[in-house]
Request: fold
Amino acid sequence: MTISVAPLCFSGVDESTAYIAECEASFRHRVIDVAEQLHSIPGLQLIGLSGPTCAGKTTTANILDGRLEALGRRVHTVSVDDFFREQPANQAKKKTREGGSIDFDSIDALDFDLFAACLSELMQSGHTVLPIYDLSCGKRVGSRELVAEHGNDVFLVEGIQVVYPEISALLHQYNYRSIYCDVGNPLRAGDAVFAPEEIRLMRRLVRDYHFRDADAAFTFYLWESVRANELKSILPNVVSCDIHLNTLMPYELGMLRPFLETILGELPTDSVYWARGQEILTKLPALTPLSSAQLPSEALYREFVPVQK
Reply:
């Protein structure tokens, strides 16, 4: 596998900002190419978008949506996460912190029958009512009506679970194409090599700390089950996907460095995850720190880092 080389230094802020913009524009163009490829498929009804945690699915979906609509295809997004089964209030976070067994990555966590029924209604009539699920409380908090008004409307089914055999088999009953996005290459910075799954873990450490009120220990704990599910339920099924998108950003290690130094520095020395945190920290000095204030307005990386002022 090819190892990309992370840039270690820039002549100034203007050069690094231009490089970040170049990387983001390259990714956007790749997604636009995919959208145009999908648009050319006669009678396309469904697009599946999957990928492991922190692969960049949200931004990918937004770019696909915008380009397809510019081409005259109205896009309706269906999130598989809205079909989670209800849990008692706060049980998911409470049990996970205490070592419980709730697994939101499992197919058993989904109301598969409801998903199948809604999908069938959409394909037959272009109309259904979708649940709205709030992960923070583990409950459905409402519903929304989805109505396809034109014959060339397309439905974008988004979620980690799209590659699960049960979901995939259901979607393949229709005119369907699937997209899988992931960090596709390791990055080298000096003598340090960051594997794709490590890069996603680093993304998640920063994202969950700033956007989901989770400290590093909690994210490391969750990562154990998340990674186990990827190896069991996601990676073996990737081969069935029609299109693969690499969401690696060559600049990203420098963007993550300042945040990770703070987040991992807060881990107490007696934490079972302290050594893992130190392993990451010792690889960071080879990276030139970058500021998230340099990110373009629609950058992929705004999914993972707060924008500094």
Residues 90-101 have pLDDT under 50 and may be disordered. The CA atoms of residues 46 and 172 lie 9 Å apart.
